[in-house]
Amino acid sequence: MKNLSCLVVALLLTFAWGTVARANEAQTEATPDTEVTDLSSLNLPDAVEEFFTATGEGGEPILAESERAYYAGLPEHARKLVAVAVENDLVSRPEHLKGLLDLDLRPDKFELMFSDNCILCHSDEDQQSEETWMRLDPEADAGPSHLSLPAFLGGAHFRKGLSCSGCHGGSPDVLEMVDEIYDRWPDFDTRREDRTWIPEFCGRCHSDPAFMRGYNPALATDQVAKYRTSRHGKKLLEEGDSGVAQCVSCHGVHGILGPQSRNSPVHPQAIPETCGRCHSDVKLMEGRTKPDGTAMPTDQLAQYRESVHGKALLERGDLGAPACNDCHGNHAAMPPEVSHVSQVCRTCHTMNAKLFDGSKHKRAFEKNQWPECETCHGKHNITKTFDAMLGTQPGELCYNCHARYAKHNPNCIATADHFRETIQTLAEAEEHFAEKEEWMAEHGLDAGDLEGVRADLHDALRTARSTVHAFDQSDFDEVAKAGLDAVKVGHEKVSAGESEFHYRRRGLVIAILVLVFLAVVLALKIREIERPT
Amino acid sequence: MSSSTKSNSLLDWADQRYQIRGLIEFLKHKEVPIGGHSMVWYYLGGTTLFFFTIQILSGLLLLLYYQPGQDTSYETIRYITTKVPFGWLIRSVHVWSAHLMILSLVVHMFSTMLLKAYRPPREMTWVTGFLLFSISLGFGFSGYLLPWNELAYFATSVGTDSVKSVPVIGQWLLEVMRGGPDVTINTLYRFFALHIVVLPITIFAVIGMHLVMIQRQGMAPPRGHETSPRGMPFFPNFMLRDLLLWLMCLIGLMTLAVFLPYGPGLPGVEWELGLKANPLAPAYPGIKPEWYFLWIYQLLKEFPAHLFGVEGPEAALGLVSVIMGIWALIPWLDRKSRQGLPTPGFTDYGNASILFIGYLTLKAWDLGGGGGGDVLPDPAAVARTCAIIILGVAAVQIAIRVLVYHHWRFTTTGAVLLQIILHGFFGMSYLLAGAISFVLAMGVYIIRYRGRERVFEGAKS
Q: What is the span of the domain harbouring residue B390?
């Protein structure tokens, strides 16, 4: 008893020790929150020190602990740049410095920003107009998206060391605005109305392989050349139509991001919206025509969103699914002509295209100048294919053309019916086997073999659906045979499973009967020995 | 030579060497007490032993094919259930029997507790019984991982993780258990060795002690019937009844194994093989331990991350340790029953434990919470539904106790029910409701204790 008491006390003490240790740890962790960063060891110049000691209307310091800690953590060179900016009045208020420190930039980026007088000056609300003020906090200070400093600092150009003067001219070192800043661009009013200067302006760097090698050697330099050949390029550069898309329409102005960034307007998932900004705008598209002279539609984006490609890209996030540019091109954007539609589709759907090439339909389509894939599957609104597409009744897909162009050949209809019946047989069997597989698994039967058969059937069914594009019964039957064989084996497996199930049930009944018999004998024996003598 | 002469000479031969006539005489005169309560409770130890024997036999058959290893554990279990003749039945029987053994053991333990069979001189029988219960849980926990499937892998990861909360040596203990910081195939090797070597040797020794104690001391007679002259001969009457019950258990076991080969489909009571364990795959939601660990799992969930400077899991496991500690030491804590006096307080403690554990187990099943798929069950609806069920069970339990056994002490039961009502119907946090109920129950105990002392002093004066 005594030993047991000792054991209990020892356990309680161990538990209490753990508790106290944890409580101490919790206290130690809580301490740093109340610490104040000491800047006295940094020998701050008077002007900067004034900023750090300045207080707001309520008496609280304008530069709070987070800014003090960030500043103290900067390398000495960066702190010196801050001092120079403050002394030169480029950063003239503690509130301005606070905003710049709050950007929480990496030290190298911070140094880059403080080496650029354009940024320092244009980020100060007090020194700029609404149209030239780069907002430090675009959410709090509403303004056009291109006037966001954080976006500019996060852009591909700034990351490579290119800042304002790269495009605007001038020098980041000078303290005042000089004339050369205005030299490169058309004057303010002209450049807003006439956008023809933009492709050439961007092309000054992006079309120069020697220049681009120093920044991004992997990036192509033929964008402007391609743009000139595009519908957009021709309209802008040959017809002077400034309403069409040029570089900044898709890529933005400040804070341009590469297509791999999810926030970029040219990221694959953003492209439909980017193109749709103009092409879904009824007002903007009014009066514009396609090359064949018909009016430019504005429902492509809505149709694309509902299509199998749109759902894959926008809902499932499958970046392999095509967006607008995959069919229409990027910088060389133009509508694929009738003869090119299938070339676009076959870049991904190679198997079906190859089968179609060897089919009788190919010749008929070429003869009549029909677009290949589009005739049956549509364009922007391509839906997931379904077996009922092989419809030979009035109003259905095959009938619509064959009633008009191939009345003299009833074999075509018979072949289509054969395709559909066979495919339906395979599809129904696959569904039936899936149900049976689940049933077998639920009842503890081995469904592994049936699973294998179903996988074979699934492959055969997929290949058969694809082989339809050859429109040839012998080719189709060869592929479908593998599926029909799998159906036969599958039925055998299901039948074996059902037999095993009944065998188990019968075995259980027999075993229970034997055990019940033994139990009755035992009960009678107990009654016998307990009968009063 | 006649057959009786032959058997007598064989008996003589054995008696000369092993003195077995004394044992036969002992068995002939051994009796099982009758009276005071139903004899049903005397059979539960036997059924537990029966299921344990099934475990040993079916386990041996599984061992003919099972091979522990990264590329063999899952594959051999799959082979056993799909290709080996009757392999599916052996595995199903092994798992069903494991669950039924624990169920029978739990009912046996509660019946022993409520009938105060732990009274002297049977304290050590209770302690060895408690050890058998703990070892059986160890069997369940170690066997769960052996198929090396997804469910087992993640449940073991979660289960072993709670060991971290043991003060001071938690991390060390975790790594010893797992054979490293994470659950890997090394963990399976350890669990396999535990499951087929260490635990069987230990359980055989403890079962031996438990049975020897029962045979030497006989089964505990109900309180007040210690000197009753009525008794049923152990051999053959009781033994044959035991056999009859075992046959019925076997019929039930086989029916369950054939009709529900993967369990009834409740979380914590299912063993479909599913996919092979993949440590890199994300753990899927809704993983729950086996049903007998569910109340501890739910208790861990009821605790916040930190409580008065202690980590939540640490506090929860501390509480479980206290409850289990009281349970193990009951023969010494229940001082009055040592003197043969009634102890309604401990009877109430046993009954209240059933409601306490039952409520947490039902909550762990998320009963009445809706949800499913990606939608999480509504915790308030779960708490309310489980409270309604447990209040229904408690009403039946209290009615039986009052009408059949004439119990009038319900302090602990009342505290547990108050906690359930405050939490389930008034949305109070489980811990706060528990603290209020605990304080009120302690208040009642103190008032009653003082009242009793006053009566005692009055009697003295």
A: 343-461
